Amino acid sequence: MKPAIRIDTLQWFVGIYVAIRGVLMLMVPHQLSSSVFIPIQPYFPWLGTVQVLGGTALIAVATLLPRRRLVVIAAHFVAAIALLQAAFGHILSQTWTGAMGFIILGLGTAIAPFLPHPRLALPVWEIQSYYPKIRSTDLFALLMGARIAVDGFIFLTPFSQQFSKPLYDSIRAYLPIYGIAHLGVGIALLAVQLNPNLPRKAFYLAHLLAGAVCWAWTFGMGIPTWNSFLYFGGLGTLVALLPWLSPRLRRLDPAALRTRLAVVLVGIVTLPLLFTVVMVTFQEEQVVLDQDVNLQQTLATALAQDIASYVGLHRAATVALASQLNLTSLTSSEQRDLLQTFNQAYPDIIVFATFDAAGSAIARSDNLPLSPSVAELPGFDTARRTGKPTVTIRMGRVLKRPIFEFTVPIRTSDAQFAGIATGAIESTRIAKQLAQTSVNTNMIAYLVDGKGRVIAYPDAVLVASFPDYSQVPPVAALIASRDTAGGLRYQGQSGTQLAGYARVSELGWGVVIERPATDSLTGVRLRRNRDFWVLVVVATAVMAIGVGIARQLTEPLTTLAHAADRLATGDAGAPMPRSRLTEVAHLSAAFASMRDRLHRRTAERDKAEAAIRQLNENLEQRVEERTAQLEAANKELESFSYSVSHDLRAPLRHISGFGDLLQKRAGAALDETSLRYLNTIAQTATQAGKMVDDLLAFSRLGRTHMRYTPINMNQLVQEVQRDLELETKGREIYWQVQHLPQVEGDFSLIRQVFYNLLTNAVKYTCSRPQTEIAIGSTDTEHEVIFWVRDNGVGFDMRYADKLFGVFQRLHSAEQFEGNGIGLANVWRIVQRHGGRTWAEGEIDKGATFYFSLPKRL
Questions:
Q1: How do residues 405-449 score in pLDDT, each as one tens digit?
Q2: Long-range contacts (CB closer than 8 Å, 24 or more residues apart) made by 231-235
């Protein structure tokens, strides 16, 4: 028996794994929060659906055993797409161990239907008895061995950047040990699968070690996620238990009603429930997220208004300072006293200061040394040119953080520019207002300027660098939008973020409030967790119910099958099943009645068989007698043919011979008419002799032993053309020969067919100034049709049925020589090959002769 590759364990194990992974993505996506899933979290509903369908499809083909290969290929293709999609997430996060593992499983699942295995070739009732007869290679174990070995190679690769992440801190020091263990165990698993002659203990040990290294890696990382638990621990457990599970899967008849009913019930109940819960929960999540985005937009608008009022208040204080009467006539100390008085009234302003028309400092409210000239600063120039108050943002020279500076021009009594008054607010004062919105939450509020730079943030270290947030989605939306407020959801490095933003009127700034979506979905996700476990319980209960119902249905059928087996051995006393189900009870009664009738008829059949054996013996004797008679008749026919040949040829030779003697002796004395008579007698005798030879050859065609060989028809036609060169010498013949296919037949007989047909075409085109003969073929489903077409004298289609008869001629011997036996030979040869012959023609327009040969003899 040929070696086989088992794919049913792959269908069961990978199908279950992919389906569970899809259920997790749909039911509890928040549990899949590692870096592998963050790039693809927005697509979880679609990706989870594909994985559930792919896993379900694999389980379905393992259970239902569809006979159409296209269905199996489609199921494996969907499951492979789901696995390769999982590999894509690992590639995005540069987790190469997971990426290579999923690629190996995905490609192996895709090619599984094309590997040699009996599940599509045998009837379902023979599959159970097939596997125990052989030591088959398990495709799932092969793929797991390759995956573990590749993981070991990656662990030992010094330039891999995957293990620099904090996730691998606990095992980074042991990577060489893990690498050697994985590489060795993976190679060992491949070896025991590919070499069936190794000891059974080595087979069991390799599988146990494969599961052990998978669990060692899982525990080494501290079982960080559901995905790691399923991918390493789940598949590792399956490969470790494969030597024990595989025989049980063999005994689990996939075509049994019990198996199919349990799986179908789980699918019918669980899948609709799963997708219904997912749709309801997904809509609920969307509503909650939309509400929170609107709430954050409202909060951002309120904060923007508060900041506008706060900034407006302190700008107004600076304007009031610059509007003081006789401010320019006060001395430096008097101005300092005035500034300190204002600073006491507005303590959030860190310093008030005045500068003369040249930009030189006059006084400060904080008693610090006077600042250098501000004549070169943009705020000073703007205030001097426009005469209007301005607000500028600059990095503090001492504090090293953003400072909001109000610049107001000072005018003399005659409205001449006399200098500026300034007031400054540190960004931390506004940051405190923003921080009040995020008490006891993960909400972050910050302020950006018109270019998207952060000018107020709860983290003072971050804002000290004046970072550019113009590419952050909510800041980019704020800059690009014409609306005063808005909100959005976007995918950040740590997951989905909710953001609301609002413009600060007249300043060109913007307030942004961000919050992780997880904070909003806490209640929904608690319900998701509850629904997930409810789904698990329901699926388990449905499977148990399905097995119970199937057992009630199958036990009577099993008893009935046992009774049928006993009946096949001649035992008609096996007990019959009892069931309360009407259909099963009726089947049992009908089988019992059939068994009784069969028992009675068996006795009758035995008697009839005895009589038939007697008749067969008599028949064999009669057949032997008839065969002997037929052989005698054949011998007599051969003797008759020889006698006819000898007895007819002798007088014909005498007639021809004496005619020649008479012509030699009295030829000079005979007149022209007498000489013509003598020539006619000689020709007739010669023609009669040729007819005898042709008739004998025709009779031998039916008894000739045929030797079938492949025939190169192109070469055969070329040989026949060379044989006809002598007959066609001096004639202008245009041959048109197509490429002919190779057929099987008796070479010499098929050559005779073409020789007769081409001779016929040459003969009946002799009256044409230019002879045209075409040879070609037509290919059909069951036969190859060859044809020979000429532009000769043609024939009347009313007499076409006479063409292939013995000595049947449609033209006189005076017109064209011949005796009409050639086409009869063609018909006989083609008939012996199982083909057909026919012809088409028209008077003076040529003729076409066809014959066909079957493709399979």
A1: 889 999 887 778 888 999 988 888 887 777 776 655 678 888 888
A2: 231/98, 231/101, 234/17, 234/20, 235/13, 235/17, 235/144
